[in-house]
Specification:
Structural class: mainly alpha
Order of helices and strands: HHHHHH
Distance between the termini: 27 Å
Number of helices: 6
Number of domains: 1
Helix content: over 70%
Shape: globular
Strand content: under 5%
Oligomer: single chain
């Protein structure tokens, strides 16, 4: 059996967080209209928020790469993940608008939110 150290798990977690948010942030600019379309109807200025959260995702990913800012960036990404949950919930509640994705995937993404938050926290917390 292969033993993976806690330090290695943490590095894998950090890598996952960086890729998740860097790629996601870039897509906020590449597919802006798609992201605008998932904004809850009650949210004002949807394009602004899509671009703003894209900047935050990319900035958070960069911050996680810098040990000095890692913990702060982790908390910022946790807050961001919580803040975008209404858009993800909007999608899950209206899967008919997203037939290419499907209800199952949308609800699995909702279930993944707390797991993602835990991965961010665990991998970016200060070393003991």
């Amino acid at each position: 059996m292969i033993h993976i150290s806690t330090a290695m798990w943490r590095r894998l977690g950090l890598g996952f967080v960086v890729v998740w948010f860097a790629v996601g942030g870039v897509f906020h600019f590449v597919a802006t209209e798609a992201f605008v379309s998932i904004m809850p109807p009650y949210a004002p200025w949807p394009e602004f928020w899509v671009l703003f959260t894209g900047v935050c995702e990319i900035g958070g990913a960069i911050g996680v790469l810098m040990p000095r800012f890692r913990s702060l960036a982790g908390w910022a990404l946790i807050a961001l993940t919580i803040c975008v949950t209404p858009a993800n919930l909007e999608m899950a509640l209206h899967p008919e608008r997203y037939p290419a994705i499907g209800a199952t995937v949308l609800w699995l993404r909702m279930a993944f939110q707390p797991v993602l938050i835990w991965i961010i926290w665990w991998s970016t917390r200060p070393s003991p």
